Each structure stands twice: as structure tokens, then as C-alpha cells.
Amino acid sequence: MIEAQGLTKRYGKTLAVDNLSFSVEPGRVTGFLGPNGAGKSTTMRMILGLDNPTAGSVTIGGKRYHDLKFPLRTVGALLDAKWVHPNRSARSHLRWMAMSNKIPMRRVDEVLEIVGLTSVANKRAGGFSLGMSQRLGIAGALLGDPEVLLFDEPVNGLDPEGILWIRKFMHRLADEGRTVFVSSHLLSEMALTASNLVVIGKGRLISQSTTQQFVARAADNTVKVRSPHLDRLRPVLERAGASLTDNDGGVLVSGMDSDKIGELAAENGVVLHELSPQTGSLEQAFMQITGDSVEYHTGLEAEAQQVLRTSAE
Ligand SMILES: Nc1ncnc2c1ncn2[C@@H]1O[C@H](COP(=O)(O)OP(=O)(O)OP(=O)(O)O)[C@@H](O)[C@H]1O
């Protein structure tokens, strides 16, 4: 369990993290979502005691990082996969980490096995691909068998196979009952990986909810309708609770799905030339929501609808 309370970090004039409060529960993957520069890495560094908050606090299992006796046994992290001496082998890198945290040496071979690096354990880490380096970083995070794991943009730059591996691995860790907190700037990626989301923009909390709820809000679906009888259809749909916006010779309908629109049209003898759900601009909606978070962080739902309407025009 990770809990942040009023977490704030200021670098000179930049307010990198602004009064952030959220919690991350065990047994599931929680995504930490926000555009580049939103303050995700800074927050993760504060969780790990690598940066001190200007105000507020963050705890892991009720304790601040600095109060943990053997930190690696409580929390493991992958912040930067290339943080390995290039001339060290994977095994000697992990041995050095284990030694400094009083972790038994046999655990090194266990974690190499878990991440599938046993066959290259004695090879120079400097020659590893990004995907292999990520695995080595994850092996390091797992050394102390910690309850809490943090991953900062772990799929950046990976090929599809590497992305799939990481995604499955996160689920496995969560299924083991661990707290998994993973940052990304890609909503599409997080929608596939995380069951819960903490979303930030400009250092501020935008929402904390299930991924399903966030995606439904950000993509609040509209349906494009074209008909030679729009003048008759319009009042029918509005009376039934939908709202309509003129769009490219037709209308965009929100607050009603395409099945219902089709049924109402048929009941009223209205011919339709187009009835197409619009779901394509999820990432764009997310970027606009988070990009202007100071203004958008309250009326998320309404703003998401507006964004989708505008981008469909
Ligand atoms: N050491 C630092 N000194 C000064 N400013 C910093 C420092 N670290 C981060 N910042 C600033 O704080 C803000 C948040 O940066 P941070 O790296 O935490 O964002 P992020 O969401 O992780 O983005 P990215 O994915 O691009 O790293 C940015 O404006 C960044 O320029």
C-alpha cells in the first residue's frame, strides 16, 4: 500500500508536484498516468526517498522510505533500466545489490530465472538490448521479494514482444498480492495493463478511479448520424434525453447509444444514411484533459465530451 498526502515538490520556480494525495492498493496493477513533464518521475523519486518533498508526505505500508530498515525488502523499483555498470555481468550486478541489502546470494539466481535471464547471467550487461536491460532492472527490483513495486515508464522503447512480456509480468506480480504502481504517458497502454489509474497533469491529481471508469469518461461515446429527415429526428432524440451538435452535414449525438437511436428512428419512420459510433480519439481526449489540467481537473466528464466533439468536427 502506498499513500501520498498533500505531496508537493518545488524546484525553484517549477511546481513539479502540487498537493498530490492518492493511494495505491495491493493485489492489482495501478497505472500512474500523465503527459510528459506531469510530475510522475518526481513523485516516484519521492516515494523512494530519492527526493525530499517540499510539503506533504508519502508512505509505503505506513512508513516513510527513510524509516525502512531494509528498503529493498519492502519496495523494489525500476526507474532507469540502463542504470547498470556496462562491464558487469547480470549476475555480478545483482550480487552486488543483494550484498548491500543483506539478501541471500541464492535469491540472485532465483530472480534471474523469474525474468528469464538465466542463460545470459554471465554476459556483460553493457551488451544487453533494452528489453534485456528492463528484465535485469526488474530482477533487481524483485531481489528483496518486496510487497511494493514501482516501475517508471517500463515499456518505453520496447518492441511489441517486450511490451507484452512486461504487461503479463505486472499482472503476475499483482496476482501474487503485491502493490504494483506503474507510470506511463500512454492511456492506450495503461488501459491494457492497469485496473486502476491515478491520473495527473501539471503535478496535480486529475482523477483516481478504475481504468474502466476513466476510459468511459474520457471517451464518452458520441454517435454520428446523417439523415435526410434530421428535422424530424432531432426533437425525437432530444425528448428522449440525448443532446445533439451539428457536424459535417449531420449531427453528433451524445447521451444515447446507436441501438437506441436506430430504434427511435425506425419507430418514427426516419431514414438514416449514417449511424456510426465515434470512439477514435481517446488519446487526444486524454492529452487535452491532462494538458490543461488546472482548468479541467474538476469538470472532467463534460470536458471529455467537448474534446471529443471538437476533434470529430
Ligand atoms: N531536478 C530537477 N530540477 C528542476 N526541475 C525538475 C527536476 N526534475 C524535474 N523537474 C521538472 O519538474 C516537472 C516534472 O517532471 P517529471 O520528470 O517528474 O515529469 P514526468 O511526468 O515524469 O515526465 P517524463 O515522463 O517526461 O519524465 C517538469 O517540469 C520538469 O522539468
Question: How does this structure look, described?
Answer:
The protein has 2 domains: 2-215, 3-Layer(aba) Sandwich (Rossmann fold); 222-278, Alpha-Beta Plaits, CATH 3.30.70. The strands form 3 sheets. A 6-stranded mixed sheet has the order 5-6-7-3-8-9, sandwiched between helices. A hairpin with a 2-residue loop joins strand 1 (2-11) and strand 2. The protein has 13 helices and 13 strands. It is 39% helix and 26% strand. Helix 4 (106-114) packs across helix 5 (130-142). With 313 residues, it is an alpha/beta fold.
**Which compounds are bound in this model?**
adenosine-5'-triphosphate
**Which strand order spans the largest sheet, edge to edge or round the barrel?**
5-6-7-3-8-9
Radius of gyration: 24 Å
Number of strands: 13
Helices and strands in order, then pairings?
Layout lengths: L1 E10 L2 E11 L3 E6 L6 H8 L7 E6 L10 H4 E4 L11 H11 L5 H9 L15 H13 L5 E5 L7 H16 L3 E6 L2 H7 L2 E6 L2 E7 H8 L3 E5 L3 H10 L3 E5 L2 E5 L3 H10 L6 E5 L3 H10 L1 H4 L3 H13 L1
Parallel strand pairs: 3-7, 3-8, 5-6, 6-7
Antiparallel strand pairs: 1-2, 1-4, 8-9, 10-12, 10-13, 11-12
Helix pairs in contact: 3-4, 4-5, 11-13
